Structures
1.
Amino acid sequence: MTKDEHEQSGKSIKIKATDISVAYGDFVLLENASFEVKERDIFIIMGGSGCGKSSLLRCLTGLMPPATGSIEISGVDFTAADPLSRNKIMQKCGILYQGGALFSSMTLAENIALPLEQYSHYSKKMIAELVSLKLALVGLAGFEDFYPSEISGGMKKRAGLARALALDPDILYCDEPSAGLDPISSKLLDDLIMELNQSLGTTFVIVTHELASIFTIGTNSIFLDAETKRIMGKGNPQDLLKNPPNDAVFNFLTRGKDENA
C-alpha cells in the first residue's frame, strides 16, 4: 500500500453513492454508478458533454432524485430522508453554482449574509463580522458594498464561493467553477480551492472538464462516459493518466493526443 492509499484508507466516507441511475423520463444519462467521496477529498466528476456530470451533481445536492439507487451523506441515507432531515444535511453543505448565482440587487455582503440570516441565530453584528471574514477568506476584503455588476467574472466566482462557505460546510459542491474564466483567474480559483481544502478541511465535489484544474486540484475522481452511460474510470486523475483503464479515459485526459507524438 502506497502512502497516499494508506492516508485515504484512514479517512471517513463523506458521500457514498450506490447504484445511482440518472434519467429524465425515459432518457437515461447514467446507469448503476457507485462511488465514494472521502473527507478532505477534492473529488472531480469529469467527462465529455452529455455524460450527466451536472445532473449527477443535482442528485447529490437533492435538486433532483436519482432514478434508482441511494446516496448516503455522512452516514445518513439522503435519498430516503424526510424533508426536515434532508434540510439539516444540506445546511452542512455549500454550493457554488456555475454562474455564481449572486442576487444582482444585493451587495456582496447582503448575498453572503442571506444564508446566515436564514439558518443561524447570530446577531446582526456577528453576521456582519462573519461576512467580512468570508470575503477576506476568498481575497475580497473591502468589497462588502459592491454589487455583482461592479466586479469581474473571477471575483463573482470568489464571492459565490464566500457565500457557499457562509455556514462552514463540511462538503462544498462546485458546478464548473472555472467556466467563463480566463486562464489566470481560473488558476487563482484553483489555488483558492486547494487552500480552503487544506486550511479548513472542506471536502470538495467538483464538476469540470478543464484538464488544467483536474490535474492541479483533483485528489480523486470518476469519469462518466456518455456512450456507455457508465463510470469508466475511478481514482486520482494523475494515476488515471499514467495507467488509463480504457481508451475513453485516455482520450479524454490527453484530448486524443498521442503521448509519444
2.
Amino acid sequence: MNSVYIDLAIGLVLAFLLFSLLVSGVNEGLVRILGIRGKFLWAYLRDTLDGPDGKRSWIPSTVAEVFARLPFSKDARPAFSPLPPPAQSTATTWSGRLYERLREIDHRKDGKTSIASIPPGRFAVAIMEIVTGEGGVTTLLAKLKDDGSPLYGPMKSAWDSAHGDLDAFRKGLEDWFDGEMQRLTMLYRRYVRWVIAVLGLLLTLVFSMDSLEYGREILTDNAIRAQVAATADGGAQSLSGLRAKCPDHPSDPYACITEVLSAPAFVQIVGNAPVSVKIPDTGSPQWSWNGGEWLHRLITPGHWPGFLITFFALLFGAPFWWDIFRRLTGIRVRAGETTK
C-alpha cells in the first residue's frame, strides 16, 4: 500500500515539475525575445543617471505596466554602436555617456544594446573614465548637480567618504552599484512573479489540468497494473475488466494491454488541451480538435478545485518541485552541485 502512495506523490510532483519547467521556459523565451532584462536595466540607469522623463520613472510601478509598458512601450535601451569609446563624448545624456564606455562589451540585438548586466567593477571603471574626460570629480559633480541627475547624491557621498582618494572613490562607487544591482534584481524578480503567475494560470487552463483528477488517474494506473498482473496469471475476470477499457481490441488481450499501458495518467492529463494528438502504430500523427470537451471541463465547477491546486503548485517554481522530486526518488546531487 505504501508504494501506491509513493507512486501518487511522485506522479503529482513530476507533473508539477514538468509544467513548472514549461512555464519557466515560456517566460525565459519571452524575456529573450522582448529583451526584458536589458530594458529593465537601462530603465533603471535612465532613472539613476538622467532622472525620470517628465517626472515619471522608467521602471514600471504597477502590475499593468509590467505587462504593457516595460515590454512594449518606448525602449529605454540606447542604440547599438560597434565603435570604440570616443575620445570626446558626443552623447547628450549621462546614460548615453555611460554606454559609450561600455560599448566594448556589447553586441547587436535588434538595433539596441544587448547589455543586460553590468559588473559593478566595470561600472566603476566607466564612471572613472567619465571623470577623467570631465577633468576631475569636482567638475563632474558640479555638472551632475546642475543637470539634476539623481546620480549626484551617491557620487557626492562616495567622494566625501573617500577624502580625495580616487581608489577609495572608485571602490565606493563599485560597492554602491553592487548594492543597487542587488536591489534591482529583487525588484525584477518581484515583477517576474506576476508574469509566472499569469503564465501558470494560462497553462493550467490550456491543458485544463485538474490535479485531483490526475491523482485519481495515477491510482487507476496502479489498479490497471494489478489487473495486468492478474491477466498474466490467467485471471479471466481481470481480462474482462481490461477489455472494457479498450473496445478497439475485444478479442486481443495483448493489444488491449499495450493500448492501456501506453496511455498512462500523465499522457491522458495533457490530452485535455483544445488540440490533441494521437500517434497510431502506423502512419503520421493524427491531430484532432478537442475544443468542445475542453470548454466543458473549464466551465464544470467540479474541476475548479483541481485547477486551483495546479495553479498554486506552479507558483512554487521548478527548483522547488525538483528538490521535492529528488528527495522522493533518492536522486543524489553530485559533489559541487547545488539546487537553487
